[in-house]
Amino acid sequence: MDLVAKRVVVMGLGRHGGGVGVTQFLVEQGADVLVTDLLAEDRLQDSLAALRDLPVDFRLGNHNVSDFTGADLIIANPAVDPRDNRFLRAAHAAGVPITSEVRLLVERLPNRARTIGVTGTAGKSTVTSMIGRALDRCFPTDTVHVGGNLGGSLLGSLAAMRDSDWVVLELSSFMLEGLEHDRWSPHIAVVTNLWPNHLDRHGSASAYAAAKAVITRHQQPGDFAVLGPALDPEAFVTQGKTIRVGHSADTDQAPIDLMISGNHNQLNARLAIRAAECAGATPADASKALTGFAGLPHRLEHVGTWDGVAFYNDSKCTTPEGACLAIQSVGSTGRAGSQPTKRVHIILGGYDKHADLSQLASFAAKHCVAVYTIGATGDTIADEVTRNGGTARRCQELQEVVRAAVGSAQPGEIVLLSPGCASWDQFDDFEQRGRAFSQAVRDHVARRS
Question: Rounded CA gap, 69 and 91, in Å?
C-alpha cells in the first residue's frame, strides 16, 4: 500500500517506545497518522517525547471505534490479540486492513535471501544477538541489521538497506501469527526450543506451536531450518534443508569460549554458528566471533558477589523450563551431565500465563536451598514446593525477598532471580523487574556495609 495521504492508526504507543519507530516511519512516508493508546499521557512521557516534533494526532487514555472504522490502515501492537478486541473487530467489519510493524518491514525488505529469523520459547534474544555478532565479524564489508522483537524498529533503516545487507530478526509467536497472512518465512530460520507458553493468549499449546511453525512453513527450496535438539522436525515443515543442532547426529560438541555460563548457552552458540555457516561463514570463524560473548542484560546477568554470596538477575526467564535451566546453570559443578548442587536460593513467581508450574516447583524443591515466591503465582508455587519437601517463603516485594535471601544465604551460595513467569502483575516488563532486583541487592549491600 502506498501510504501517502492515507489515514493510518497506530494502536499502542507503549511506555517503552514500541510504537515510536513505526510512527516515525509512517510520517516519513507521508501518512496522516493517529496514535491511540489506552494509557494516559502522563504514563507515556518518554514515548511522546520522541514524537514531539512530528505532525501526529493522539488519542490517549481510551480508544474510539470511529478512529478504527474510518482509517485506511491499522498498525496493531503485537501484544494486542485481534481475536478478542472489539476495536479491531470493528475495523475488520468495516473492511479496514490490519497489519503490524514487522509485516510492514518484511514486505519492504530488499532481499529475502539475506534474512535470518530466530524464534523459540527461550534463548531467542541471545541467539539473535550471537548471529548478529558472528555475521558482523565474519563479513566485515557487509552491513548487518538486528531487530524484530529484540531492539528498536528497523523501519527507519529501510531507505539505506542494500540487497547485500543481512537482516536478523527475533520473531515472537505474536509476530509470526501476523506473518502467516503474508505467507512469509526467512531464508534461514532458527528455532531454539519449544515449550508451552503464552497460553493465556494462544489458548492451547498446539495453537502456540502452530504460530511458531510459521517461521519455516513458507520457506522455499534452498532455504535452511536450524533446529534445536528437542524439536520434532515434523513440527517445523520446510521446503529447505533441515539442520539439527545438539542432536545425537551433531558431532560438533566442542565448548565455545563464552563469558556466560550454562550448557544451554553453549547450545545457543552452536545454533548461532550453524546459522552463520548457512549464511556462508566458516564454523571456525563464527566460533571465533563469539569468543568473549558476555550475554544480554537480565539473562543470567551477574549482579555481583558480596560476602561470598553471588547474585544473578535472570528476569528475562518467563517459562518454568527456563527457570530449571537457570538453576542447573548456576548450580552445576561444570562437569558434563552433573546435577546442580544444592546451593541456590531462587526467586520464583509473577504473572499467570496459565503455564503448568508443578514441575518447576518440584525441581526447585529438590535442587535449591530455598524458594522465595512473589506475584500472582507465588502462593501456587509455594504450596507445590512445600508439598515436595522444599523450603518456601512467600514474599510480596523484591526488596523483601532480597532481605530474606541475604539473611539466609551462606558464603558459596547463590541468590538467583529466575521467576519462570512473566512480570506484568507487578512490573511493566521483565527489564523493570530485573532492574528492581539488582537495585534492591545493591541497596541492601550498601546498608550492610
Answer: 5
